Amino acid sequence: MSIALRSEIEAISVEIINNRRHLHQHPELGFQEYATSKFITENLNQLDLEVSTGIGQTGVVALLKGGNGPCIGLRADMDALPLQETSDVEYKSMNDGVMHACGHDGHVAMLLGAAKVLSEKRDQLKGTVKFVFQPAEEGLGGARYMIDDGVLENPKVDEFYGIHLWNYQPFGTVGVQPGPVLAAADEFIISVKGKGGHGAVPQGSVDAVVISSQLVLALQTIVSRNTNPLESTVLTIGMIGGGYNFNIISDEVVLKGTARAYTEENRKMIHNRLHEICDGIGNAYGARIEVDYSDGYPPTVNSKSESEKVLLAAEKIVGGSVQPPYLTMGGEDMSYYLQKVPGCFLFVGSAPDGLRVPHHSSHFDINEEALLVGSSVWVQLVEDVLT
Ligand SMILES: [Zn+2]
Ligand SMILES: [Zn+2]
Q1: 61-92 per-position pLDDT tens digit
Q2: With 208 labelled, which of 95, 170, 179, 185 sits at a CA distance of 20 to 30 A?
Q3: Cα-to-centroid distance, 77 and ligand 1 (Å)
Q4: Of the listed 79, 207, 251, 306, which one is catalytic?
Q5: Residue 79 is among the residues annotated as catalytic for this protein
Q6: Residue 222 — pLDDT band, cuts 50, 70, 90?
Q7: Strand runs (DSSP E) across 78-210, as ranges?
């Protein structure tokens, strides 16, 4: 493995890693990133950039204006998760029950490092860089709030990029691919309304538990029978609840689940089939079944030419270790930007040696050298696009 870090990034590697550790020790949940936001702002204010705060509630945006040319947006999300850190690293979270378990601390540190290096190259840049520090990626859709507050306008962003540190890939690799790289992540609540009765006198009742059991299995056929087997969908019932006691037929059961798809077509298909199956089973058994389906993040879809730019930039840093990303059916609100502006969401391999530390686990950690890879890719990409 040969990694050619940018020398300007190597020169500030201690600062980048220390910034990540500081943020790791002081994690904050979505839309509560006040200290994080302040830390970012203080750092950016040293760089002679136009800094705006309070964008999308707690977000921060900084503009680096070079000469005439396109405007490219670079995004780091900055929120943590409601999780108690269980490992005993020296930079362990100091906020009880809150932890940077997805790597967003690293995303901020990488982008701050890149901003520092790029701000000294202003004269060479033909165009504008917009550094976007976004709150509340983990489920609350902070990206939408940033967009509503005009982050893609004034100046209008022509290309938009984001990096995720990725423990599913070994350190030293960068995952890049055009097309969908993360799934749509929708949620639904199903209420099965039957008619209660005595557990020994089922006739005349409408047993919501029996009907729900049918439903759980029938819904899996959306994945196994309605989805093109060469494409991917997931449907998970993650919660089921109802009933009173061993001898009472339940009048109501509530199921909660999530549906994942890489395309809008499959997403709509799942939504429609969910209604059809619920209606059909409800009719068959004489129950009323209500479906409350809410759209979550759309699929994250990379554009072709921007993915190509990332690929070329990443190759200059990690050589032949640019590869298709390790894909999951997770969702990301990066998708909202990419619905409006062409761009690319890329994955920087950050798996620590010999450890299995999945994202969102209480012992999550990264190989911090990956921060330098990510920062180097940022600098390289901006130079490639704007010079
Ligand atoms: Zn996450
Ligand atoms: Zn994340």
Answers
A1: 999 999 999 999 999 999 999 999 999 999 99
A2: 185
A3: 10
A4: 79
A5: yes
A6: very high
A7: 128-134, 159-170, 174-175, 179-182, 184-193, 197-198
